[in-house]
Amino acid sequence: MKIFIDEIKENEPVDSLFLVREKSFGVTKNGNAYLKLSLVDRSGEIEGRIWTSVDLVSGSFEKDDFVHLKGKAISFQDHLQMNITHIERVKEEGILLADFFPMTERDVDEMFQSLVEIGKQVKDPSLGQLLVLFWEDKPFVERFKIAPASTRLHHTYIGGLLEHTLSLTQLIVKNASHYTGLNLDLLITASILHDLGKVDELSYHRSFDYSDEGRLLGHIILGMERLEDKLRQLSDFPKDLALQLKHLLISHHGQYQWGSPRKPMTLEAVMLHYLDNLDARMNGIQQFLRKQVPEGSRLSRYHPFFEQYFYIPAQKVEMELPNITEEKEIEEE
Amino acid sequence: MKIFIDEIKENEPVDSLFLVREKSFGVTKNGNAYLKLSLVDRSGEIEGRIWTSVDLVSGSFEKDDFVHLKGKAISFQDHLQMNITHIERVKEEGILLADFFPMTERDVDEMFQSLVEIGKQVKDPSLGQLLVLFWEDKPFVERFKIAPASTRLHHTYIGGLLEHTLSLTQLIVKNASHYTGLNLDLLITASILHDLGKVDELSYHRSFDYSDEGRLLGHIILGMERLEDKLRQLSDFPKDLALQLKHLLISHHGQYQWGSPRKPMTLEAVMLHYLDNLDARMNGIQQFLRKQVPEGSRLSRYHPFFEQYFYIPAQKVEMELPNITEEKEIEEE
Amino acid sequence: MKIFIDEIKENEPVDSLFLVREKSFGVTKNGNAYLKLSLVDRSGEIEGRIWTSVDLVSGSFEKDDFVHLKGKAISFQDHLQMNITHIERVKEEGILLADFFPMTERDVDEMFQSLVEIGKQVKDPSLGQLLVLFWEDKPFVERFKIAPASTRLHHTYIGGLLEHTLSLTQLIVKNASHYTGLNLDLLITASILHDLGKVDELSYHRSFDYSDEGRLLGHIILGMERLEDKLRQLSDFPKDLALQLKHLLISHHGQYQWGSPRKPMTLEAVMLHYLDNLDARMNGIQQFLRKQVPEGSRLSRYHPFFEQYFYIPAQKVEMELPNITEEKEIEEE
Amino acid sequence: MKIFIDEIKENEPVDSLFLVREKSFGVTKNGNAYLKLSLVDRSGEIEGRIWTSVDLVSGSFEKDDFVHLKGKAISFQDHLQMNITHIERVKEEGILLADFFPMTERDVDEMFQSLVEIGKQVKDPSLGQLLVLFWEDKPFVERFKIAPASTRLHHTYIGGLLEHTLSLTQLIVKNASHYTGLNLDLLITASILHDLGKVDELSYHRSFDYSDEGRLLGHIILGMERLEDKLRQLSDFPKDLALQLKHLLISHHGQYQWGSPRKPMTLEAVMLHYLDNLDARMNGIQQFLRKQVPEGSRLSRYHPFFEQYFYIPAQKVEMELPNITEEKEIEEE
Amino acid sequence: MKIFIDEIKENEPVDSLFLVREKSFGVTKNGNAYLKLSLVDRSGEIEGRIWTSVDLVSGSFEKDDFVHLKGKAISFQDHLQMNITHIERVKEEGILLADFFPMTERDVDEMFQSLVEIGKQVKDPSLGQLLVLFWEDKPFVERFKIAPASTRLHHTYIGGLLEHTLSLTQLIVKNASHYTGLNLDLLITASILHDLGKVDELSYHRSFDYSDEGRLLGHIILGMERLEDKLRQLSDFPKDLALQLKHLLISHHGQYQWGSPRKPMTLEAVMLHYLDNLDARMNGIQQFLRKQVPEGSRLSRYHPFFEQYFYIPAQKVEMELPNITEEKEIEEE
Amino acid sequence: MKIFIDEIKENEPVDSLFLVREKSFGVTKNGNAYLKLSLVDRSGEIEGRIWTSVDLVSGSFEKDDFVHLKGKAISFQDHLQMNITHIERVKEEGILLADFFPMTERDVDEMFQSLVEIGKQVKDPSLGQLLVLFWEDKPFVERFKIAPASTRLHHTYIGGLLEHTLSLTQLIVKNASHYTGLNLDLLITASILHDLGKVDELSYHRSFDYSDEGRLLGHIILGMERLEDKLRQLSDFPKDLALQLKHLLISHHGQYQWGSPRKPMTLEAVMLHYLDNLDARMNGIQQFLRKQVPEGSRLSRYHPFFEQYFYIPAQKVEMELPNITEEKEIEEE
Fold first, then answer.
1. Mind telling me how many Å the CA of A69 is from chain F's nearest CA?
2. Whole-complex ipTM
């Protein structure tokens, strides 16, 4: 059974699975090498030390591997540290991702099914076929279900990309009929595909960060590549429709400074941009309020990206209160 | 019967109502004074000249008066000009506003009734009472039904403020349930009142421009004054609820540079800001596309405020086509 | 007699008044709860610990209370920490504010009297009456005398708002006659009232921070509410004069990005803005130079808000030197 | 023989080829329709009128057609205007582009050959093959030789894209060896392909403007599509090399606000960006100085894009003087 | 006696002095060359034509010369135009500058004397000597008395630099004692010299524009050169004092984007910057209000540089009303 | 022989030269004063303590002195600290600068000679003479050879200014002939002198920081002073040439916000700006990549000034790999 890092106590034995975030060497005062590890799971981080058989052990696992550990937690300079007596690499298949990463609270398969259903409402045959091609691409679907939507700002958890995509598409369906003359088929398709490239932009199997492709090209370009690849398989896809769909994808950030090579120029692109922004902000602020409101306060900490504070009104008695857990303290006096 | 300015032909007599936009004096080569008028109605603008009894006539009407004119259109330097033989001030009561200003295409009373109905869904008694106070304020309601929402960017026509307010409130109702924990009563009330101060900010009885109060204080401050005035009449209005409502009003522009003295700090304020923005942009771009797309082109003219072009996709066969009337030409060769 | 925190020495008993800035619980290695306090006064901050009768004691005081403490300072991990043996809540009335907060160095009542005297020079009866209404509002005057002018940038001490208001009003009197055609009565009144809302924006009884009203509305809106409240009591206050006065108040920050909903549009508003800015900067830089110039240097530390360094020229032999006290050190070796 | 518009004189017959920039209808005072044309060639623009057989003639040509005209220039309201007696559509094949558009002063085929030669220096076989694929793509090469590099800022003439690409690639060769560790093969290839998408972004057969693809996607996305298309044909093109090459293409504008979805992150990308910028500016300023320096002045007119004036120093006696032709005047008094 | 351009009437003879702003050639319909002149004085601008002896006359004067003209005003295309029968170059010495350029309304010599008197209050001998050196520099003083302070924004008239310098220095004297620890001698000296370089930056003998030196270097650099030149003559001028004085000069614009190579870093530099800004704005807005408020309005036209409107309150009954002269009209009907 | 700080080991004696970065007093728990030193050399920083004869020793050296130390390293709170038993001031002459500061890796005298040689290619006698004057100014040349080019961004080492100047001048020579009509003599001279003022702006004998002159005036103004000083010695230096040269110097930063009082207005100034920028960035990024790429990563740390990450492509097998030394660790467990 998984023992979580925030449950480990001084002088108690530990026997569980962890992820190796960092691995490096240290030298004792006596000049002997030892292994320094940083071990993580969903609940936190702890230092680990391997003092013996360092050469031998060192080659058996790497940074970003999952490992099965045995050892004991001791207190060193007011922090807990694990003295490791046994370590063994574990394959990813045997791992429950939710033990190691924040996860969406919603059911991934249900969400995916809901998205597929909305896609079926698209009447335009070319756009409908395009969506089917994506759903038939198994490796894509697998990544699409797991990827987070962002490393920092919103839906930053396993399944976040899918959750955000579904939420935005539902907003589109709700709002598109409010204005006349919008191409709903185009809007639904573009909404489903708008953050497509994030399956390649982010690396999220060990930690949430950018892949090299993500850093050097960004999800807009990466998404265009995946879209092009599918469009080539649909030889009679209308050229003008493809042009519009691409425009919606590359302009959905809305501003040059947010990495959009074009501003939204059609009514559909404008709506997609505003609702995408709304959904990202609402989720991002909700996540932030859950973690960044000091106990007893209605005011959040400063949000460095938005450069402001947020506020939880007292009025909302019916509102689900943010879950503010005080960090547990273990002190030695 | 109203003869519209764009229907006036050379050498034909004119006998109709017009609005005097400008009034000034000129001097003929012989040293005689004459009156120069700029006359307008919904369809355009024409110069007028009064050559005789200038002193007498001049005192009988002023700039921004409606007048009943008789005269004949002649051609001077390639433009039509009216030589006026009779002019008489007409009271505003006898005027059909729609002859002189652009009007909403929707029924004002129906829209107002729809807004009142949504307001009745507010369950919080304090907020509900507040809305009733506004609806009972007849002079306010009268102005609220007529005011445009903006001088330039969106809903720039008689009834535009009401049309925008209703549209935004409908969007709020559609979207608020999409996120958990939002105070719907507060959102509906804030949406109905969000642009309140525009009834005082803009002067729209003669032309769309800012009033002195509008220039010096702006609609956010002016709206706060009207809100304060009503809140004082509700002695037990919860202080905290008033604080939140005011915050939604003063932050709905979203950014300091758009004249908001505060950024949105609550989830409700964030949603109000984004949907207000969406509705203003969608309407503004639709208005712009109706007038600013050259015939035969899909690309609009440059939009100086948004600093970009807009585009009408060919794909939308079902879309109501923008109504592009080529300006009529009358030439003399 | 007050023992200041920077006077406390290791292993000596302490018996004095302090303010509780933070209060939380810790758990010893043995699993026992204890109380962790952060105690402050004007001179600094010290950690406190209560190891016994935790449940009992904990309910007898709260964060932000003043308390009477007895205990002994010990050294823990190179810092002094107080082991508290007695703690008792003390009412605010028995407290000398100057023991706990930075204070203006000038006499508050003298400054207030000077401001009232300048106000008496206003000849316009409406403006004169308005000022009298404010001076007769005792709760307002009390707050007005205590409030700081800012949490960070200038006059950040008890009495700072009054000091800044007096200083600005004196500058106005000095400079207004330099230009022709300025309305001196309006300028003096607007200067006295310009930061009015800061009595509500900031909370300054326990620490310098923003109140909820301050965060959500800001001092410009809060000041407008107080001004409106008084104007209602003056039924014949000229409408146009009120409009101008309000414009001066809401535009005095000068720029949208500094939270002004309007830029200064009249000559009076322009002068008020520039001199307000001058006075805030001069005081802010003087305060900064007093604390943020390393000993032996003429160059200050980096000022993060102004994004620059400041410099004290050597030339000014007659200048009162900034009072740079090296922080005392207590080390254990 | 081509009669250029700036050679046409009042009351003289005209018989030559022109491009129809605008075509619309007017109505005479008698109520008869006539055709209004705007005719252009390299030297300027002139109005044309067709008064008879309007219905018949109108269907025989369109806006943006080349036409063979006969007629006579008359003076109307101080401008020359052509009364057209014969008009006939002419196919593009019979047209000398240089009669209608500004052209590079350099030999297009020589420039192209020089570029191909530099490309042959690329030693990396994958990159070398890639270039060969582009050179073998005849329709691409044809467009690549004709396209301008920009509609407004630099190399705004037929052949400008090729001229700029060659110039930049020569700069790259000169400068790459100045720094150690740069991948010259990658730099040369990226330089040759950096503005690839401009063959699709701009429409330049009738006037210099953006194509729909250019407006909605931009040359960076369009270039990526062309690059992807070729890379697919090279199945063993190293993935990492493709990633770098794409990064150089999408980051070469250097800044988000200039439409780059990424900033340059590698040393090669930084160099490409700076030298591209240098070459565009030098050419753009030289073009500007040729046309926008008033006679007798060393100071240029204001450059609205760069928001500054430019200056031609007197010192440069050896410098080829800008060719400032005063606009000819034809007046009627 | 000077006949001003706004006094010239149709068909009346003219015999007076004018400045030639533009001079170019036209060609009549008969193919004959004629001279086109643009003639200006303080009151306006008028076109002039010389139809005979063009070759002969053309060489006798140039653009920017003052000329003595005889001719007659005729009406051409609704504008007055002068047919010139006699033209003769006039030396500058015989010219009254005030006939040709806007002038300060104050007495130049009195203002200069006031400035010298304030300078005498400087007690520091080095700074005092420095000022004397400038006053003894006759060519400098002559230019200093004539130069405008700006081409567009404030004090844009002959004597404007002196008027602004005196006004700022008086403000400095009024305000410096308000804060403790300021070096008044340094402030007065820096104030007197702060815009020194404007005597070289602007060319103002024929029109208000920038000199080549002004364009390429700017008045801050040009002022530093003049200051350096004087400092070299004062061999024992304290190095540190010179450093401070230079800092005040180069930082007085306050911001990099306004061309200051440094921000104000000392209290004196901060005060100089704010009061300079105040004086420039107050004068600039007053000038603007005099010309740019439509008759009958309290609201000015849009100010393109400040990006706002200005407002003249009704309240100020005692205020000298702006002098709004309606442009005279001469029409032919 | 120099013992470097990163070679010092616990409990071993030290006897070597160090630079005193900080010097202050502490008080032991017993109330005795002791001296706290921060000692540095090229390899790092270490704390030092002097426990005895504090009064006597304290007067014998100051902050920023080089000292000869004897003592022993002990471990205190997990850091090494030196207990000093002997300390003695050492004159700068006896010091090898390269032991204490980062140095250019290139030979300073060779670089200087190369620069002089390029300068000899200048054919214009005035510019040639000007360069000779600088080379004959021995104190200048000495500083010019030692100064770094920047405190943070590029060439931040002893000799960096010279290295950057030579590199830029070589780039100028390579690129100037690529465009027609450039004044090469002017470009070479301006390139050699462009950062002239940095010899005074930066203080680099003890640490890399700004001098007072550098802070208050900046290297552009300081360079102008040195240039003016030389130009005065060349009485017949053409005025117009001096104007151009000065313009190149003051505009080479290219933008107001980077402290240039003017933007580049001539072709030469534009080229100088772009190539200066290129050289500074290329060197700065190379320096950054050497230190700020975590081991095993291709991605650098975040660059706070450029606000981005940089990337080292895998492709460059021939590239000299950045020298990433893991920081040595000494731990006590």
1. 21
2. 0.82
